[in-house]
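Sequence design from tokenized structure. All designs in this work follow the same two-part layout: the structure record, then the generated sequence. An example of the structure record is given first.
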């Protein structure tokens, strides 16, 4: 097939996008996962459907950042498939529970089973064009393992509050009070009051109740001196033994026996 100026031609047939469809294509939209089984599913988005004859938007598992669950809210970029129908690309599952959308399927029993439970908040602090990440080495079940900074969300705690609390606890003794304050301010400026949303990553868990982690990313390039970890002979009170900047390509971060990456 050949795509030329919005007209898709194949096997002697042509499907030309209308001006309204052309305006919709490439834009990011928000919708709700209507259904998902196996490797694909459908997104209910009234705005896109209005321009494509009421059609739902096709979603493939390779086009979304986490496991899609029916009823989850998702943002995506609209493209056309080979037949001219709407298709989602660069889809991102949002952390908040999906809001009601006209026409969205409802099934209380299924929704209770499939609702995404965000049980953990984590920080992904990077520098040098995202080549390095700040990680800690902590003792878990008697073994020293590398991990990101973060932990379990406590009852009544907001996701950002959890991430900032874990930062203060786990970096205690390895970063100065001023360094922790610097990171806290930067994260609050970016994510506070819903300015930006954390990325949602699905954890491997029971199929009956998928669990997720909210990942707060921040580029720390330019603050290398302020954020250089201090050397400590003893672990801190939270059993963190070391804090260090490591390259993503470092072999220890690729070794499952030396890390406990939840992401």
């Amino acid at each position: 097939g050949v795509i030329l100026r919005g007209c898709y031609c194949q096997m002697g047939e042509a499907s030309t996008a209308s001006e309204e469809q052309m305006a919709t294509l490439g834009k990011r939209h928000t919708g709700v996962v209507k259904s998902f089984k196996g490797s694909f599913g459908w997104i209910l988005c009234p705005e896109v459907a209005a321009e494509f004859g009421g059609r739902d938007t096709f979603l493939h598992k390779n086009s979304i950042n986490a496991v899609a669950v029916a009823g989850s809210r998702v943002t995506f970029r609209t493209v056309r498939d080979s037949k001219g129908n709407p298709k989602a690309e660069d889809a991102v599952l949002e952390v908040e529970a999906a809001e009601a959308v006209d026409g969205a399927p409802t099934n209380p029993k299924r929704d209770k089973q499939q609702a995404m439970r965000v049980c953990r908040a984590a920080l992904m602090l990077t520098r040098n064009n995202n080549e390095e990440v700040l990680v800690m080495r902590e003792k878990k079940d008697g073994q020293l393992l590398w991990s990101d900074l973060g932990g379990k969300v406590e009852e009544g705690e907001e996701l950002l509050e959890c991430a900032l609390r874990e930062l203060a606890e786990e970096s205690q003794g390895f970063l100065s009070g001023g360094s922790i304050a610097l990171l806290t301010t930067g994260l609050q400026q970016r994510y506070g009051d819903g300015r930006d949303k954390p990325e949602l990553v699905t954890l491997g868990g029971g199929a009956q109740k998928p669990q997720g982690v909210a990942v707060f990313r921040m580029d720390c390039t330019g603050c290398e001196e302020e954020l250089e970890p201090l050397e400590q002979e003893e672990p801190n009170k939270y059993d963190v033994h070391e804090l260090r900047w490591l390259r993503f390509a470092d072999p220890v971060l690729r070794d499952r026996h030396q890390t406990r990456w939840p992401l």
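The mean pLDDT is 80. We note this feature because it recurs in several other targets discussed in the main text.
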